[in-house]
Structures are given as structure tokens and as C-alpha cells.
Write a structure and sequence with these properties.
Layout (H helix, E strand, L loop, with lengths): L45 E7 L6 E3 L4 E3 L3 E3 L11 E3 L2 E5 L22 E9 L13 E3 L12 E10 L23 E6 L4 E9 L4 E9 L14 E8 L5 E2 L8 E5 H4 L4 E8 L4 E9 L6 E5 L1 E3 L23
Antiparallel strand pairs: 1-7, 1-9, 2-8, 3-6, 4-5, 6-7, 9-10, 11-16, 11-19, 12-15, 12-17, 13-14, 13-16, 17-18
């Protein structure tokens, strides 16, 4: 249908601009000209979802093939077989490409390249010309955790959205699609894969006035329950009198225990230590005694700080799925 009625401010609610199939000033189809397609859109409104830097080992699956905005008019007849159902005013369909004719996708998995970048494109197949509409597009993030093989990889991916297709063309030719857009979206962090970790608090450690403290950290990811074994270092952070710079241990293998003394790690230190271990299921024990273990002695279990560590505002309740918590 021609869209050539600017005098009456007609709005045809399509992607096409001014369009007249006979061409401009008669120079079009059947007149020897080639302007019959000027302003005619090649496809409907398309929306591109862009993901960048998805960590290796993570898959993005189950994008819906068709999605509606979940609000609209009361349906009747064949489009509403149930009682009181709502027919969406806005419907999108997943397609195979940013450009070209409409081609519905057969699956909802986003293909990622070697750097973890990928995109999905939807085309608007139904909309309301009289409503301001919005829509939520859900999808599933999937991975198989194998900490022993460092999978999935650590990292944060970003997400952006824009109209499609994206183009950098400034001087158009007949081969450039209509419409086309510049991507001015601002990407936001979306998926974050953090390392497996345990944070241990040793509330009192000393090597003063004739005392010393032994420290032991066990990597208990080796067990009879089928837990994936992990290996990683522990960084010991010192706080208090005579505190030295942080010390990073050698890798602590699953089923082994790291042992040392404050005398060897931080002579004349007295205070507390927070150990950040790059594996789950670390457990700590401290043993305070006179140098040489002659008479007075006592021991205690380190406290487990929930992962991720607390905000500066205090020790709040651990988030769901934050790992093993023994105490606060």
C-alpha cells in the first residue's frame, strides 16, 4: 500500500518511509525509472540482543521462539480457547538473520564465537499503534560445573540491545537495507562467573610475649560424596600489630593440609588473619601455645565468612547458594 499522504499527516505504522509504487514524479514502475521501491522497507521492525565475553563453558539456551508482552485485549473465538485469556498486543518472533526476508528460527540456542560473543534477533510480527508497549525476553544460562578443570571459565559478560540491522553506512546504495540503524546502546554486565572460594577468619593469632600460633588449612573437596575436587592457593591477609604484607601459599591440593606458624610467616605479629582460598570446602584450625609447646596451649576452628564476602556495612546473611557456612 502506498504511503504517500504527508499532507494529511497519515501514519501508516510501518518501517517504510514515504513510498509510492509508481515512483517519484512518475519515475517508477512502468515509466522507465527505478524509484518504485524508494522508501519501501525490506522487512519489519527487528530487535537485536547482543552478548559479549560470555565465559568459556557457558551456553545460552532456550530463547523463546515466539513471545508476547502478556497484556492486551480479552481474547475471543479461536485465538482464546480458554476462559478469560489475554491476547498480547505485541508479539515477537525469533528469526535467523538481521537482514533478508523473514525466516523464523527453529531453535533458541545462541551461537557464540571463540571470544564468547553472540547475538539473537527478533522481528515484531504484531503490535498496537495506539499503545506504549514493552516486553521481557527470558533465556536460560547453562553450564556444567567442573572446578577441577577450571570450567566454566571466570569472567563477566555484557548484554546490549538495539534495533536491527546494524549499519555504519553513511552514503547508501541500492544494496543497503531499509531500515538500518546505528548501535548506540550501552552494554551492561549480565553474567558473572566467580571463582570457587572459601574465606576463613582466624580471630586471634600471635607471636608475642613468648607465644606462637600454628595455622592449618585443609582442602576437604576430596570426600566420599562425589564432590568435584579442586586445587588452589590461599592468600593470608594480616590485620593487627606488626602485620606484614599478604602471603600467598603454594597450591593446596584436594585432600591435603597447609600448615605453618605465625613465627615463620609474620614474626612479632599479633592480631587476626583472613585467609582467601581459591577452592571450596576449606577448613581452618589454629593452635596457640608457648614457644616450644611447653605447657599452656589452646586451639580453635576458623570461622567461615560466607562467599561472596560481606559489604563494608557488616556481616549480613549469606545469599542463597553462597556455599558452605559454618559460622559468623
Amino acid at each position: 500500500m502506498n504511503q504517500d499522504d504527508p499532507q494529511n499527516s497519515a501514519n501508516f505504522n510501518t518501517e517504510s518511509g514515504f513510498y509510492n509504487e509508481t515512483g517519484l514524479n512518475g519515475w517508477g514502475a512502468g515509466t522507465g525509472g527505478n524509484l518504485a521501491a524508494a522508501g519501501l522497507a525490506d522487512f519489519g521492525t527487528r530487535i537485536r540482543l547482543t552478548l559479549k565475553g560470555v565465559p568459556n563453558g557457558v551456553s545460552l539456551v532456550a530463547l523463546p521462539l515466539t513471545i508476547g508482552n502478556g497484556s492486551g485485549t480479552n481474547g475471543t473465538g479461536d485465538d482464546c480457547p480458554g476462559t478469560g485469556c489475554i491476547v498480547p498486543t505485541l508479539i515477537l518472533r525469533l528469526v535467523t538473520s538481521e537482514t533478508g526476508g523473514f525466516s523464523a528460527a527453529s531453535g533458541g540456542t545462541v551461537t557464540l564465537d571463540a571470544t564468547g560473543n553472540g547475538a539473537a534477533v527478533y522481528e515484531v510480527v504484531q503490535q498496537s499503534a495506539s499503545a506504549i508497549e514493552s516486553i521481557t525476553i527470558p533465556f536460560t544460562v547453562s553450564f556444567t560445573a567442573n572446578p577441577g578443570a577450571n570450567s566454566p571459565a571466570l569472567g563477566t559478560s555484557t548484554f546490549g540491545g538495539s534495533f536491527a540491522p546494524i549499519s555504519t553506512v553513511t552514503v547508501a546504495t541500492t544494496s543497503d537495507p531499509i531500515p538500518r540503524f546505528a548501535d548506540t546502546s550501552v552494554a551492561a554486565n549480565h553474567i558473572t562467573i566467580n571463582k570457587c572460594a572459601t574465606h576463613l577468619l582466624f580471630p586471634f593469632m600471635t607471636n608475642q610475649v613468648g607465644f606462637d600460633t600454628g595455622i592449618a588449612i585443609s582442602n576437604t573437596s576430596q570426600d566420599p560424596y562425589g564432590t568435584s575436587t579442586q586445587t588452589g592457593t590461599c592468600t593470608l591477609n594480616f590485620f593487627g600489630a606488626g602485620a606484614p604484607a599478604a602471603v600467598t601459599t603454594a597450591a593446596v591440593a584436594a585432600g591435603t593440609t597447609y600448615v605453618n606458624t605465625v613465627m615463620a610467616l609474620a614474626p612479632n605479629f599479633q592480631g587476626y588473619i583472613i585467609a582467601d582460598c581459591e577452592f571450596q570446602y576449606a577448613h581452618g584450625f589454629a593452635f596457640v601455645t608457648r614457644v616450644g609447646a611447653t605447657d599452656v596451649a589452646m586451639g580453635y576452628l576458623a570461622l567461615v565468612i560466607p562467599d561472596p564476602p560481606r559489604s563494608p556495612n557488616g556481616f549480613d546473611k549469606a545469599a542463597v547458594g553462597a556455599g558452605e557456612m559454618l559460622g559468623q
